[in-house]
Write a structure and sequence with these properties.
This protein is mainly beta. The protein has 3 helices and 9 strands; from the N terminus they run H-E-E-H-H-E-E-E-E-E-E-E. The strands form 2 sheets. Strands 3, 4, 5, 6, 7, 8 and 9 form a 7-stranded antiparallel β-sheet that branches. It is globular, with a radius of gyration of 17 Å.
Length: 139
């Protein structure tokens, strides 16, 4: 559960254990931000809780995220525009509604083919091997 004091708790309604977001509005807002106007790319973290991180990202046509890898599973869900994601298996072109899922440690680079916004989710792997007092494997 997110901890109190995080910015998203002040800017989004929280009821019990549920966070709700209007993704079109989030994407529009970051696409109008000074950071986006200045650099052609920006992101806003919506959730950073334990092993889960969710961001909305905006890239101007031609802007990119250099080749990198993540320690957990990654999803890229295009909200608007067009992206090219290049992996060792080749390029994947995604338009609105397109979803790409990457296994942990897959090298990838992202480039906007048209002004784009997308939802980026990172699910970090569970730590394995530590035992709990009850004898089971911990997280």
């Amino acid at each position: 559960m997110p901890q109190l004091g995080h910015t998203y708790l002040r800017t989004h309604r929280l009821k019990g254990n549920v966070l709700s977001f209007a993704l079109r509005g989030e994407a529009t807002a970051i696409g109008q931000s000074a950071a986006y106007r200045r650099s052609g790319r920006t992101a806003k973290t919506l959730v950073n809780a334990g092993r889960l991180r969710v961001e909305v990202v905006a890239l101007r046509t031609g802007a990119s995220m250099a080749q990198h890898r993540a320690k957990g599973n990654v999803t890229i869900h295009v909200l608007r525009g067009a992206l090219r994601v290049v992996t060792p298996e080749g390029p994947a072109d995604l338009g609105p509604g397109g979803l790409l899922v990457l296994a942990p440690n897959v090298t990838h680079a992202v480039t906007a083919r048209r002004d784009a916004s997308f939802l980026l989710t990172l699910a970090l792997e569970r730590k394995v091997g530590r035992t709990t007092p009850g004898g089971g494997v911990g997280t």
